[in-house]
Fold this sequence. Notes:
heterodimer; A: two-stranded antiparallel sheet; 17 helices; 2 strands; globular; B: about 170 residues; alpha+beta; Alpha-Beta Plaits; 4 helices
Amino acid sequence: xxxxxxxxxxxxxxxEVTRDVLARFQELGARYWGWVTVLSFLFVLGILGFxxxxxxxxxxxxxxxxxxxxxxxxxxxxxxxxxxxxxxRLMKAHWRRPLTRVTxxxxxxxxxxxxxxxxxxxALPPLEGRRNIWFDFPLGAPGVWNVLGFGNLALVGLALxxxxxxxxxxxxRDHLPPSARQRVIxxxxxxxxxxxxxxxxxxSASMLFGxxxxxxxxxxxxxxxxxxxxxxxxxxxxxxxxxxxxxHGIQGAIAMTIVVMYVMRxxxxxxxxxxxxxxxxxxxxxxxxxxxxxxxxxxxxxxxxYGRLPGETDLIRFLVLNSYLGPxxxxxxxxxxxxxxxxxWSPVRRSAWGPALVSVxxxxxxxxxxxxxxVSAFSIEDPTLxxxxxxxxxxxxxxxxxxxxxxxxxxxxxxxxxxxxxVPVISMWEVGEGLRLTKxxxxxxxxxxxxxxxx
Amino acid sequence: MANRKLLGLFQExxxxxxxxxxxxxxxxxxxxxxxxxxxxxPEGSFGEHEPHHRLYMFPLVGALIxxxxxxxxxxxTQISYPLVTGGKPLLSIPPMTIIMYENTMxxxxxxxxxxxLFESRLPKRSLGLYDERITExxxxxxxxxxxxxxxxxxxxxxxxxxxxxxxxx
Lengths: 455, 169
């Protein structure tokens, strides 16, 4: 007899999943429009903050520090999310299926990042006389090549989203009642019918675009940290800064994915797709990348600590011990200590609320860390010096900075909500494929799920 | 003799595999049979022919073109306008690497998008012989059979459990 505690409820069919997801997808209720209105308002406030900054021009670089920090936060969290689906798909992790589309839909935020990049580039000082990765290269550096690097990431993200959504766009085309939205979706589905060749091509494309996203993301983080941080801080010689930024990005991506899943589970009614399995599985790499977070920081810090040259001690005082001590402590606690002391406990990992709560902390810590990284660099008056000329004070945000921060984050959520009404937020074909490969079988006195692997 | 297209709709994958076996045994070539589905199945699940595509060539070619453009742009301009700075080598390798990498990526991305469209035969203006139930989990067998074998193909699919067999109008 099967023990009731280990009984697995019957799995839904592909048809049930399609009908359920499309029913939610079709719904454009008052609550949805309410959220869109609130987010649009906040986004407009962000634009207002940006306009306030724009009226001050680009001569005073320090006023753009929070703008760059917000942009970097988006790159480190929202725009890093497709890394999760790309990585998990390459590893053939079956539990990924319900969450891949959520992460891919976030690639739309790449457009916002490219727009935010333009004024950030305008605020950069000339390359001449300061250390930079362009070695005074005259042809378009750094502006053109930053735009191309960021643009590549946005482009491959959108390609990943569109191509992998084709089967679900076709499902929406087939089953939604005629409307303007249905016509847009029908056009976007490109006439997909799901024959053998199309599926083989789609499978290969998922691998190729996933690999390309994994290749494009580190370059963007490297450009960010090199041009907007290291190149502006006199005396900073940190060889692992780009790698550290990528690690922060992966930690931020996992944390943001968990938070989005939790919100959709609680507010969107997606409990059956975002089960404890998904939170449990993601909490393990979250813990690992929280440990990496400390390891990379420590590896970077230790060279300055033992180097002890005057310029190095000044930098430590500026970034860690004095001017930005508060943000550093907040970030260290939320990005490393809290995840470590909570996620080592299995009951916390094996829940939805535990990883979600820790992830919220990680996101707050990440924003504060981006402020520490970029606002500090933008506050340096003369980046052509060999070492800091004294230790500048920390820079608190002004009203415009707060507006830009709120507006930037609201803009990302707004874009996600809008695109999620064109592209279903659950990948129906991937979930359907998983259901076909899964069977519930009896094993001794309990039931287990058996997942088929064809290769 | 003209060919006729049939679409058999099945609910269960096992029925599709049975129907495929019967159709092939009746003399219809595997290349004349295709499967429509709302989610992919492992290769060979139905004993179907393996459609070959060359998608992997597209990013390769695109990347090579992008790399060549990046190399020409960076090295070409520096060689065309030689400005020796501080006795350092004319070609500045580190920034060249970044620019060539970006161009390589751009070429690969654009070529892959084009490759997906070309290899998937998209966009398609008309869906042709198709049924909307396929995106809900039904599986369709498309048979492009000679006129004289169409009736036999239809009866074989019905015998294997097809819920409906549609004809091209």
